[in-house]
C-alpha cells in the first residue's frame, strides 16, 4: 500500500523569513506561520480560540522568493510535507521537532501587501523550472511581473464543400 505525506496550511507569518545559504550555495528559508481555530465552548458558551504555530522550511528558488516578498504578518498558503527531526536539548534530553518542508507557496492578499502570486518547487508561472542552475534565475523577476506566454495561434479548419441534402427531415434522429 502506498502512503501520503501532504500538509496544506493557510496562515500568517509570525516573524520575518530568515534566509541562509548551505555550503553548496543553495538558499534555505525558515519562518513560522500561525493557524487559528475558533469554537464556542459547550459549557460556558464563550468563544474559544487556539493558535497553532508551524515551522516552515523552503529551499532553492522558493526560499529566495519567500525571503524577498514575505514579511511578518503576511498571509500565505503553504503546501508541503511534514518532517520530524531529533535533537538534544540544552538539558541533555532528546527532543523531536516537526517542520513543514514547503514545495508550494501562494502569497495571499493584495499585491501591495506582497501577496497574490503563486510559486511552487517544480514550476513558477511563466514556465520556470526549480531545478535550473542557480545562475539562470538570479535575475528572474517574480511571476506576477511577467507577461504570460502568448497562446499558440489556431488555424481555422478547412471548409468542406457544401453537399445538397434532398430530405433533411429523414436525418433528424428524434
UniProtKB/TrEMBL annotation:
<protein>
    <recommendedName>
        <fullName>Single-stranded DNA-binding protein</fullName>
    </recommendedName>
</protein>
<dbReference type="GO" id="GO:0006260">
    <property type="term" value="P:DNA replication"/>
</dbReference>
<comment type="function">
    <text>Plays an important role in DNA replication, recombination and repair. Binds to ssDNA and to an array of partner proteins to recruit them to their sites of action during DNA metabolism.</text>
</comment>
<dbReference type="InterPro" id="IPR000424">
    <property type="entry name" value="Primosome_PriB/ssb"/>
</dbReference>
<dbReference type="Pfam" id="PF00436">
    <property type="entry name" value="SSB"/>
</dbReference>
<keyword id="KW-0233">DNA recombination</keyword>
<keyword id="KW-0227">DNA damage</keyword>
<dbReference type="GO" id="GO:0009295">
    <property type="term" value="C:nucleoid"/>
</dbReference>
<feature type="region of interest" description="Disordered">
    <location>
        <begin position="110"/>
        <end position="174"/>
    </location>
</feature>
<dbReference type="GO" id="GO:0003697">
    <property type="term" value="F:single-stranded DNA binding"/>
</dbReference>
<comment type="subunit">
    <text>Homotetramer.</text>
</comment>
<keyword id="KW-0234">DNA repair</keyword>
<dbReference type="InterPro" id="IPR011344">
    <property type="entry name" value="ssDNA-bd"/>
</dbReference>
<keyword id="KW-0238">DNA-binding</keyword>
<keyword id="KW-0235">DNA replication</keyword>
<feature type="compositionally biased region" description="Low complexity">
    <location>
        <begin position="126"/>
        <end position="165"/>
    </location>
</feature>
<feature type="short sequence motif" description="Important for interaction with partner proteins">
    <location>
        <begin position="169"/>
        <end position="174"/>
    </location>
</feature>
<dbReference type="InterPro" id="IPR012340">
    <property type="entry name" value="NA-bd_OB-fold"/>
</dbReference>
<dbReference type="GO" id="GO:0006281">
    <property type="term" value="P:DNA repair"/>
</dbReference>
<dbReference type="GO" id="GO:0006310">
    <property type="term" value="P:DNA recombination"/>
</dbReference>
